[in-house]
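Forum: Protein Structure Q&A
Topic: Joint prediction for protein chains with partners

I've read a bunch of threads here and the consensus seems to be that you should model interacting components together rather than docking separate models afterwards. I'd like to see that in practice. Below is the full input, 668 residues plus whatever partners are listed. Could one of the regulars post the assembled result?
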Amino acid sequence: MKPLIEMRGIVKTYNVGKENELEILHGIDLTVWPGEFVAIVGESGSGKSTLMNIIGVLDKPTQGTYVLDGTDVRTAGRDQMSEVRNRKIGFVFQNFNLIARTTAQRNVELPMLYAGVPARDREARATQLLRRVGMEQRRFHQPSELSGGQKQRVAIARSLVNDPAILLADEPTGALDSQTSRHVMDIFHDLHRQGKTIVLITHSRELADECPRVITLRDGRILADQRKEGTSHAAF
Amino acid sequence: MPLSENVRLALGSLRANKLRALLTMLGIIIGIGAVIAIITVGDSLSGSVEQEMASLGARDVTVSVTQKDDPFANVNFDELDAGEQDALFENFEYRSPEPSDLLTGEMLEDYREKFADQLKALVVREELGSITATNGRFKAEGQLLGVSPDQAVQAKLQLLAGRFLTDRDGADGRAVAVVSDRFVTQYFGSRAKPADALGKSFRTDVNGIPLRLYIVGVYQHKQEGRSKPTSTEVYMPVDSGVRLLQRTPGYQTLTLQTKDGVESKPFMERTRAYFGSYYARNPYFTVSVSSLEEAVKSMDKVMQNMKLGISAIAAISLLVGGIGVMNIMMVSVTERTREIGVRMALGAKSRVILLQFIVEAVIICLIGGLIGVVLGVAVGSAGAVVMNYPVRPSVPAAVVAVAFSMAIGVFFGYYPARRAALLDPIEALRYE
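Posted by a regular:
Agreed with the consensus. Here's the joint model:
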């Protein structure tokens, strides 16, 4: 089996060559295998957002190699990065980031639109995923007509439509109350059981501890990488 | 991403900011509207002129006896100052042509023979005066014209009954007339049919000379404009008219119509040369040959210049409108920075974002252009109606205007769209 994420010596430096040059990540090695549910936990300033941007192919590392699901993203251009994100990454954001004035259904269809999926297939697939997160009844509602938890469920449906290699969730419960947070986390656990690979970025130790594997980040370095006993991928 | 999706997106975004979109369109609406309005008025005007020319005969060539070295013929009197005007009057003595100065029947016969292959009609048309004919309680009014038989051809008269004048009518000096159907109903009552008038006569007088004319033909009066004329034209042979009304023989003007395919310029040159030869030794008079065609051409030129001027003003309005569109697109891009970031994170490539915003700008301009065209046609048509021209909206102008407004959308939408397309997705996602 090949790893989905293979990072070697990732360094990220901002303002390279300038007076205010700032190195955020100091050489990260990270391997994530298919079917893993990994939490990356760290306080603000630990470099977890920067690492997330690199994992999500929104940004490129200054040094090091990153192979995502067999694709070396180091040499990718802007449009190729878009394509990689479109097909291999499913984003779930803290503030949902649904497109305003656009129905849940249309929001979920969006990644398929950019992938060039025909309209009929888009509709069927979006409906199917909204059903899976329990939002089928509200699929023609606009984001402004949905609660926070409902928005996040739509966003999760959207992240899954192109069947990405990795679900990348950035503080997915950060804007939700404890009850809806629980609900959203349950969805992630369900997806994990169904075999999805999930990377969860959070500052909350409590949330991270729910996950089978926890990577702790501090000051741009991996401080700890713990796998829990008895979890399905403990063997790696 | 299919274009229809972009159009749907753009419409959604415009719907969300209806008033803003409308205000943005205003510049385009005014610019396009102004051009279309002026073109509609202009085309209606030239259409009306053309129509009038066709009915008068734009291709008709007029030959007239004019005074030699008439200084008024060559200068624009209004442009001269008072002294120059006085000088003109002092040095010029107006004289009326003697019978020997006029065109004679023999000249016309000879000309007609020599130019038979090019000539469709040769019309002599002398105004003899207005006439009134009473028949009991009925009263008919008319303009009595002495004409040659070709008048029927030149004026495209349509006979309802009887015949038109012939060469024999004139040669024998017959007191016959062709009247209009309107004249018939005026004289014989509204129930009279054109055929009823044939062979009947009516009495009248011209400047005190009594005249009795027999009706040999009735033509259909062509209504021009909305008001019904009280008097119509009554035609009699010009030779009979000259004889019966004791006019001096000879003709001062005649109208020529060429056969189809005859070039008017060389024809006019040859005609001028032909008649000019008779006047080579005449100290006071000569002939001038002219055609309305040139007048129409110069008028078209004035119209073109006017259109050009208005178009320049409209172009400025469109430029300002385009800048307005650019401005609002910048605002739209800024407002939606985060949305752009999300779209990029979900896999939208730069050109997808570029196209989305260009389509939005184009749609603003397209809607503005369409409103402008509708408004322009409405205003232009209203103007044409007020000025009493037949309304002639220009389809090509409308198509060009709409296409042009779309081009404005592309041009002024490109820069904001490019800014959107080149946003850094991380920055855009973080934008509050």
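The two ends of chain B are 27 Å apart (CA to CA).
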